[in-house]
Amino acid sequence: MNATASPSLVTAWNMQFRPVGNEQAQLSFRPLVSSAKKYVGADHRSDGKTLWITLKSCLVTESCSAMSPAQPLPGAADKFTYMVVLPYQGEKVVVQGQGDVQEELPVSR
Known about the structure:
By secondary structure, the chain is mainly β. Helix content is 4%, strand content 45%. The chain has one helix at 9-12, and strands at residues 16-20, 24-29, 37-46, 50-59, 68-69, 71-72, 82-87, 92-96, 102-104. The chain is globular.
């Protein structure tokens, strides 16, 4: 049996990354619904060439925070679609999921 690549996080979570204004971007995402976890936002870092984004979640019974807090996406069809506002200087964007999963995120213009 061949090992198969895990499904794309970007596709599975319907992620969209789009610059807004001069130095910011908006990342919208719809995580797979879990009754045990809540999504609080994203942590981020940049070296000027790559912006790394780590989506943050914790158990619903815990208190946790993120550098960029998640907010409901205005106009979304459901309450499980979120957005975060991030600093952005035109870098390549890489999103990190659980563990070592990393995936380049296309930038919408």
